[in-house]
Amino acid sequence: MAKAYRTQADVLKAKRKQEKKRRRPRHLKLAFDLQAAGSATMARFLITLGIVSLMAGLLWPYLSRIGLGRLPGDVVIERESMTFYFPLMTCLLLSAVLSLVYWVLNR
């Protein structure tokens, strides 16, 4: 009988409580929203990264002819059964050049 005499505020409070039980927790809802928004961005980034890797692989023989990959500061360790190669100075030079290009294009 007590339920018949409830006020409108009590009814709204009860409805919100029921909806809250049915809804996902807030942190999960936020995670799903971010996932939906970020999946297109992540896909675009991965495709771009793949294209850049493909271009670097295709252009590597031509870039090595002009000296990239054999600069002073590139680390090469040769052993009997393996060779470790880390083009540190080449990476720094390419980073500086690409930063300059992006700076000029965005100006």
From TrEMBL:
InterPro entries per record: DUF2905 (IPR021320)
Bilayer-spanning residue ranges: 30-63, 83-105
Source organism, top-level taxon: Bacteria
Keywords (A to Z) from UniProt: Membrane, Transmembrane, Transmembrane helix
Keyword Transmembrane helix appears in the UniProt entry: yes
Keyword Transmembrane helix on entry: yes
Record-given protein name: DUF2905 domain-containing protein
Organism of provenance: Bradyrhizobium japonicum
